[in-house]
From TrEMBL:
Belongs to the DyP-type peroxidase family. Keywords: Heme, Iron, Metal-binding, Oxidoreductase, Peroxidase, Signal. Its cofactor is heme b. The keyword Signal applies. PROSITE patterns: DYP_PEROXIDASE. Residues 238-419 form the Dyp-type peroxidase C-terminal domain. This is DyP-type peroxidase. Residues 1-21 form the signal peptide. GO terms for molecular function: heme binding; metal ion binding; peroxidase activity. GO terms for cellular component: cytosol. SUPFAM superfamilies: Dimeric alpha+beta barrel. The keyword Oxidoreductase applies. It comes from the Eukaryota.
Length: 485
């Protein structure tokens, strides 16, 4: 489950120079002076709840679930337990509970997180118990198979990230200007990236056209009743210091989370051209249907969100829109051998690489789940790009994930599963969507349901990482006490 913003226009701002901004009494006051309940400011919710995703809990339901396991939703930044951005202007951040009620939603949501360099600048010397966070994402670039980074991400002076979200450019611009005015010269904007939900009928879909965010897990202490097939994970898989987090953490870090940010460029015209040139050939399929089937098998879902494991030949939009059915599968079928059969879903398919379900046995392992929150950036494909099959203007996904352990979360999914040609079985190839081998060609098997041993060579990375950073998103009490005094 995740939060999805209505007509949201998020902006990601990387900053440096925070030591003086957050180390004195005035900054502490800025963090605390609006901690009283927000006045009603919206008549329409900032959030939407797509049919394909489980219903959002009410404040009462979320509070009851949290109380049962001792989770304090009033101290957790609102973007963590749901996977979208939530907060208010300045370093004043709304709680998860406030975000779930229209009356307390801010006009512009805000989320803040700090890099290891930023924490060091704040004289915070405690180890957070995560070596990948401590070293930063740039040091991990080769291990993630990524190249061609945005120059700003190759620097070591990024202290933090602020994520703004609202439903108009004016709201975003006002929030950014207000923050800059409040902080003056004490912080410097290093880089910003603006994103927005795609226009109808593609709202909720990423630039390749596939409905996004369907498989986020349910979290004990927040989700009352998980949907069929939805993974149910402990809060400690996402939040530091909660049940299920096995790391050694300082007490002040409790209820924070490690935030992974990546700017993922998508080569949409090139991807569409590949599908057009390599349709699945089967009796009863037109060339266009064969191309659509190839794309669905590369992802593991149709553009509607329907899983190919349940709809193996044709899309089923009704299935895709039904949260009680669209995750209710394991890749296991009584009429097929799980370890060899790829008729329904290839072993290399994106959703199977990143959540192998019964491939690793039952009950499903829950060690490597993350909470994902991504939103498209860049314009729609132009007519000239479509006709030339060539990207001329960058577009892609502003990817954000939360986890209590980067090595067990994002990094494991990317390196150990998606980039591993021998997972889940030897020789199946890397994830054809996000698998990265530093630009080298990738060989994938299983994409053709009529010939599971057929090799498909991908000479283009359709998703290219443009860089990113590892951050820590602290609880509100940690910001007010540990990071501002």
């Amino acid at each position: 489950m995740r939060l999805t913003f209505n007509n949201v226009l998020p902006t990601v701002v990387l900053f440096s120079g925070i030591a003086s901004a957050f180390s004195g009494h005035d900054s502490a006051s800025a963090l605390q002076h609006k901690r009283t309940p927000l006045k009603p400011r919206r008549v329409q919710s900032l959030l939407i709840n797509p049919d394909a995703q489980p219903d959002l809990p009410t404040v009462q339901a979320a509070t009851a679930a949290a109380t049962a396991v001792g989770l304090n939703l009033d101290d957790i930044q609102g973007d963590l337990l749901r996977a979208k951005l939530a907060a208010d202007i300045l370093p004043l951040i709304t709680t998860t509970n406030q975000l779930l009620a229209v009356a307390t939603q801010p006009i512009t949501a805000l989320n803040i997180a700090f890099s290891q360099t930023g924490l060091t600048a704040l004289n915070v010397t405690d180890s957070l118990g995560d070596s990948f966070f401590s070293k930063g994402q740039l040091a991990d670039a080769k291990n993630l198979g990524t190249t061609n980074w945005v120059p700003e991400f190759t620097r070591t002076g990024i202290h933090g990230v602020i994520l703004f979200a609202s439903d108009s450019d004016d709201n975003i611009n006002n929030a950014v200007a207000s923050l800059e005015a409040a902080m003056g010269d004490s912080i410097t904007k290093v880089y910003s990236l603006s994103a927005a939900s795609r226009p109808a009928p593609n709202a909720g879909h990423e630039h390749f056209g596939f409905l996004d965010g369907i498989s986020n897990p349910a979290i004990i202490g927040f989700t009352g009743t998980p949907m069929p097939g939805q993974s149910n994970i402990s809060a400690g898989s996402i939040l530091v210091g909660e049940t299920g987090d096995s790391g050694s953490r300082p007490a002040w870090a409790k209820d924070g989370s490690f935030l992974v940010f990546r700017q993922l460029k998508q080569l949409v015209p090139e991807f569409n051209k590949f599908l057009t040139d390599n349709p699945i050939v089967m009796n009863g399929l037109t060339p266009q249907q064969g191309s659509d089937l190839l794309g669905a098998r590369m992802v593991g879902r149709w553009k509607s969100g329907a899983p190919v494991d349940l709809a193996p030949i044709f899309d089923d939009p009704v299935l895709g829109a039904d949260p009680t059915r669209n995750n209710d599968f394991t890749f296991q079928h009584p009429d097929a051998v799980l370890s060899t059969n790829q008729t329904r879903c290839p072993f290399s398919a994106h959703i199977r690489k990143t959540r192998p379900r019964a491939d690793l046995g039952t009950p499903e392992e829950t060690t490597h789940h993350i909470m994902r929150a991504g939103i498209p950036y860049g314009p729609e494909v132009s007519g000239a790009e479509a006709s030339s099959n060539t990207t001329s203007t960058e577009r892609g996904l502003a990817f954000v994930s939360y986890q209590s352990n980067i090595g067990n979360g994002f990094r494991f999914l990317q390196q150990t599963w998606a980039d591993n040609a021998n997972f889940v079985h030897s020789g199946v190839g890397v994830d054809p969507i996000i698998g990265a081998l530093a630009g080298a060609q990738r060989v994938v098997t299983g994409l053709d349901p009529t010939n599971s041993t057929k090799k498909t060579t991908l000479t283009t990375d359709f998703v290219v990482s443009r860089g990113g950073e590892y951050f820590f998103s602290p609880s509100l009490s940690a910001i007010a006490s540990k990071l501002s005094v």
